[in-house]
Amino acid sequence: MSVAIPGALADFLARTDLTTGPAATDAAAPAARETLDAGRRGRGRTLVITPRSTDVLQFISAFAELILTNREWRTPAEIRAARTWLDRAGRAATTLAADLATAEGEARYAATLITRAEATEGTWRGEWIGERTTATTPTLFPLDREQGALFA
User: Fold this and answer.
1) CA–CA gap between residue 10 and residue 45 (Å, rounded)
2) Residue 78: what pLDDT?
3) CA triplet 68, 70, 74: central angle to 5 degrees?
4) How far is CA 119 from CA 37, 98, 112, 125, 128, in A?
5) Which residues does residue 128 pair with via DSSP β-bridges, in sequence order?
6) What is the C-alpha to C-alpha distance for residues 69 and 72, in angstroms, rounded to an integer?
Protein backbone atom coordinates (compact mmCIF):
# COMPACT_ATOMS: atom_id res chain seq x y z
CA MET A 1 0.00 0.00 0.00
CA SER A 2 1.42 3.36 -1.00
CA VAL A 3 0.96 6.48 1.09
CA ALA A 4 1.53 10.05 -0.12
CA ILE A 5 3.20 12.51 2.25
CA PRO A 6 2.24 16.14 1.48
CA GLY A 7 5.12 18.11 -0.03
CA ALA A 8 5.81 20.57 2.79
CA LEU A 9 5.82 17.75 5.37
CA ALA A 10 8.09 15.66 3.13
CA ASP A 11 10.48 18.61 2.85
CA PHE A 12 10.40 19.09 6.63
CA LEU A 13 11.25 15.41 7.14
CA ALA A 14 14.05 15.69 4.56
CA ARG A 15 15.59 18.59 6.54
CA THR A 16 15.31 16.67 9.82
CA ASP A 17 18.37 14.71 10.91
CA LEU A 18 17.02 11.19 11.50
CA THR A 19 20.51 9.72 11.86
CA THR A 20 22.06 11.66 14.75
CA GLY A 21 19.37 14.15 15.78
CA PRO A 22 16.99 13.84 18.73
CA ALA A 23 14.53 11.80 16.64
CA ALA A 24 17.18 9.13 16.04
CA THR A 25 16.59 7.74 19.54
CA ASP A 26 13.11 6.56 18.55
CA ALA A 27 12.93 2.83 17.77
CA ALA A 28 11.05 3.53 14.52
CA ALA A 29 13.68 6.00 13.23
CA PRO A 30 15.75 3.48 11.21
CA ALA A 31 12.66 2.05 9.51
CA ALA A 32 11.33 5.55 8.84
CA ARG A 33 14.65 6.69 7.40
CA GLU A 34 14.77 3.61 5.14
CA THR A 35 11.17 4.10 4.01
CA LEU A 36 11.67 7.81 3.29
CA ASP A 37 14.88 7.12 1.35
CA ALA A 38 13.09 4.49 -0.76
CA GLY A 39 10.17 6.85 -1.47
CA ARG A 40 9.59 8.48 -4.82
CA ARG A 41 8.35 11.94 -5.67
CA GLY A 42 4.76 12.14 -6.82
CA ARG A 43 2.80 15.08 -8.14
CA GLY A 44 4.26 18.38 -7.08
CA ARG A 45 6.47 17.94 -4.05
CA THR A 46 4.63 14.98 -2.51
CA LEU A 47 6.62 11.92 -1.47
CA VAL A 48 5.07 8.50 -2.11
CA ILE A 49 6.23 5.82 0.33
CA THR A 50 5.43 2.16 0.93
CA PRO A 51 5.63 1.59 4.69
CA ARG A 52 6.13 -1.91 6.02
CA SER A 53 4.63 -1.18 9.42
CA THR A 54 2.36 1.29 11.14
CA ASP A 55 5.32 2.44 13.26
CA VAL A 56 6.63 4.48 10.33
CA LEU A 57 3.25 6.17 9.88
CA GLN A 58 3.07 6.96 13.59
CA PHE A 59 6.63 8.32 13.47
CA ILE A 60 5.66 10.72 10.66
CA SER A 61 2.47 11.63 12.54
CA ALA A 62 4.60 12.64 15.54
CA PHE A 63 6.45 15.12 13.31
CA ALA A 64 3.14 16.44 11.96
CA GLU A 65 1.92 16.99 15.53
CA LEU A 66 5.21 18.73 16.33
CA ILE A 67 4.59 21.15 13.47
CA LEU A 68 1.09 21.90 14.75
CA THR A 69 2.27 22.52 18.32
CA ASN A 70 5.07 24.92 17.23
CA ARG A 71 3.16 27.00 14.70
CA GLU A 72 5.11 30.21 15.24
CA TRP A 73 8.25 28.60 13.74
CA ARG A 74 6.49 26.89 10.84
CA THR A 75 5.29 28.07 7.45
CA PRO A 76 1.61 28.02 6.49
CA ALA A 77 2.38 25.29 3.94
CA GLU A 78 3.92 23.07 6.65
CA ILE A 79 0.90 23.60 8.88
CA ARG A 80 -1.52 22.69 6.06
CA ALA A 81 0.59 19.65 5.17
CA ALA A 82 0.65 18.50 8.80
CA ARG A 83 -3.14 18.82 9.05
CA THR A 84 -3.59 16.95 5.77
CA TRP A 85 -1.26 14.18 6.91
CA LEU A 86 -3.03 13.75 10.24
CA ASP A 87 -6.41 13.62 8.46
CA ARG A 88 -5.17 10.93 6.06
CA ALA A 89 -2.76 9.02 8.28
CA GLY A 90 -5.48 7.73 10.57
CA ARG A 91 -7.15 5.97 7.66
CA ALA A 92 -3.84 4.81 6.19
CA ALA A 93 -2.63 3.36 9.50
CA THR A 94 -5.93 1.56 10.02
CA THR A 95 -5.92 0.14 6.48
CA LEU A 96 -2.28 -0.95 6.72
CA ALA A 97 -2.88 -2.55 10.12
CA ALA A 98 -5.88 -4.44 8.70
CA ASP A 99 -3.84 -5.63 5.71
CA LEU A 100 -1.02 -6.81 7.98
CA ALA A 101 -3.47 -8.56 10.32
CA THR A 102 -5.13 -10.34 7.38
CA ALA A 103 -1.78 -11.51 6.01
CA GLU A 104 -0.71 -12.68 9.45
CA GLY A 105 -3.98 -14.55 9.95
CA GLU A 106 -3.61 -16.28 6.58
CA ALA A 107 -0.05 -17.29 7.43
CA ARG A 108 -1.17 -18.72 10.79
CA TYR A 109 -3.97 -20.67 9.12
CA ALA A 110 -1.57 -22.13 6.53
CA ALA A 111 0.88 -23.07 9.29
CA THR A 112 -1.93 -24.78 11.22
CA LEU A 113 -2.95 -26.80 8.16
CA ILE A 114 0.62 -27.88 7.51
CA THR A 115 1.16 -28.79 11.17
CA ARG A 116 -2.05 -30.86 11.19
CA ALA A 117 -1.10 -32.62 7.96
CA GLU A 118 2.35 -33.48 9.33
CA ALA A 119 0.92 -34.65 12.66
CA THR A 120 -1.64 -36.99 11.06
CA GLU A 121 0.55 -38.34 8.27
CA GLY A 122 0.76 -42.12 8.55
CA THR A 123 -1.98 -42.34 11.19
CA TRP A 124 -5.58 -43.49 11.00
CA ARG A 125 -6.97 -39.98 10.44
CA GLY A 126 -8.44 -39.59 7.01
CA GLU A 127 -7.39 -43.05 5.85
CA TRP A 128 -9.09 -46.37 5.30
CA ILE A 129 -8.27 -48.72 8.14
CA GLY A 130 -8.55 -52.17 6.75
CA GLU A 131 -8.20 -55.65 8.13
CA ARG A 132 -7.82 -58.94 6.30
CA THR A 133 -8.12 -62.23 7.98
CA THR A 134 -5.31 -64.66 7.57
CA ALA A 135 -4.68 -68.09 8.96
CA THR A 136 -2.53 -66.61 11.75
CA THR A 137 -4.96 -63.95 13.01
CA PRO A 138 -7.68 -65.26 15.26
CA THR A 139 -11.19 -63.93 14.57
CA LEU A 140 -14.68 -64.75 15.73
CA PHE A 141 -15.78 -65.46 12.18
CA PRO A 142 -13.85 -65.63 8.93
CA LEU A 143 -13.76 -62.57 6.67
CA ASP A 144 -13.56 -63.18 2.96
CA ARG A 145 -12.84 -59.57 2.01
CA GLU A 146 -11.25 -56.40 3.48
CA GLN A 147 -13.21 -54.86 6.33
CA GLY A 148 -12.60 -51.46 7.78
CA ALA A 149 -13.85 -47.95 8.37
CA LEU A 150 -13.24 -44.53 6.91
CA PHE A 151 -12.36 -41.91 9.49
CA ALA A 152 -12.53 -38.24 8.65
Assistant:
1) 8
2) 92
3) 85
4) 45, 31, 10, 10, 17
5) 150
6) 9
